[in-house]
Each structure stands twice: as structure tokens, then as C-alpha cells.
Design goal:
Peptide Deformylase; 7-stranded mixed β-sheet; 44% strand
Length: 168
């Protein structure tokens, strides 16, 4: 059985390497370390080349035990007809929150940790988190949902903050 080893090469940036040793898997610590709901990244083979993708989502409500769902090579197979607006944030763009309207329900097909194909019917926050992470795998960020003017304002603000951090 293959497991995913989560590697942080810089804050907010994760890589996923395949490994056969289960002691290298700790999805909960990877999620909880940054107090995030989910993450996505490419699988990297032994040569460091992309070889699939992984999404890990834990939409457990406050007070509920953690319930991470690891999805290898996830793909959306159905989108619900109703929508939901949710304020989303992202480690890729710190301190930015964006209200995004997405389908309230989705069905995603994936390979689980045991190599078996699964389908998950997700709704509410779980559906939003799955879609958000799949956007990352497609190269989209939350600011891509904004008008060009709003996106440019945020990018200028981030560039200014980055410049100020370097100068300090």
C-alpha cells in the first residue's frame, strides 16, 4: 500500500511524496499545524516528477473529532443545481478572505488510502472545501473569482506587504 508523505518546503506550500511506510503519514498534523480545513498538492514520484494529485479535507465541525478524507486523483463527477456563498481564505494568499458562490453539493470520485475507488457526495462546507482544493490542482486561487480590479488591488497590497517584510 502507498501512503502520502506531506512535505513543507516553505510556509503554506505543501508537496506530497508517495511512500510505502505508514509511519510517514500524518494528515491530521499537516492539517492542524496551520489550522486549515484542507490542502491539495501533486504526487511526486521518486524522481520528483508529478504523478497524480492528492486532496485532504477535514470539514469536522468544532467539537467534533477530526475526520480527514484523503483523496488521490480526485475528479468532480457531478455538481448540484443549488449554490452556496461562503467566505473562503487560503494559505496561498494570507489575510485575504473572498466570498465565493459555488454549487452547494458535489460528487467527487477518488482513490482512497487503500487504493480503492470511492465516490463522495459532499454538501455544505465539505463541498466548498473540495471545490476549493480542486481549484488549486487546476491552478486557480480564490482571487481568480474576483473582478480584475479587485484582484489587482489585492495583488498590489500583497506585493507591498512582501516588500515591507524584506526591508525589515
Amino acid at each position: 500500500m502507498l501512503f502520502a508523505l506531506i512535505c513543507k518546503d516553505k510556509p503554506g506550500h505543501l508537496q506530497v511524496r508517495l511512500d510505502t511506510r505508514p509511519d510517514h503519514v500524518n494528515f491530521l498534523n499537516a492539517l492542524n499545524a496551520d489550522k486549515q480545513l484542507a490542502f491539495a498538492g501533486p504526487f511526486l514520484d521518486a524522481d520528483g516528477k508529478p504523478n497524480g494529485s492528492l486532496v485532504v479535507v477535514d470539514a469536522a465541525e468544532e467539537g467534533e473529532p477530526p475526520n480527514p478524507i484523503a483523496m488521490a486523483n480526485p475528479e468532480l463527477v457531478a455538481l448540484g443545481s443549488t449554490t452556496r456563498v461562503h467566505e473562503e481564505g487560503c494559505l496561498s494568499i494570507p489575510d485575504v478572505r473572498v466570498e465565493i458562490e459555488r454549487p452547494a453539493n458535489v460528487t467527487v470520485r477518488y482513490i482512497d488510502r487503500h487504493g480503492k475507488e470511492q465516490e463522495l457526495a459532499a454538501e455544505g462546507l465539505l463541498a466548498t472545501a473540495v471545490q476549493h482544493e480542486l481549484d488549486h490542482l487546476d491552478g486557480q486561487l480564490i482571487i481568480d473569482f474576483l473582478s480584475r480590479l479587485k484582484r489587482d488591488m489585492i495583488l498590489k497590497k500583497l506585493a507591498k506587504a512582501r516588500k515591507e517584510r524584506r526591508a525589515a
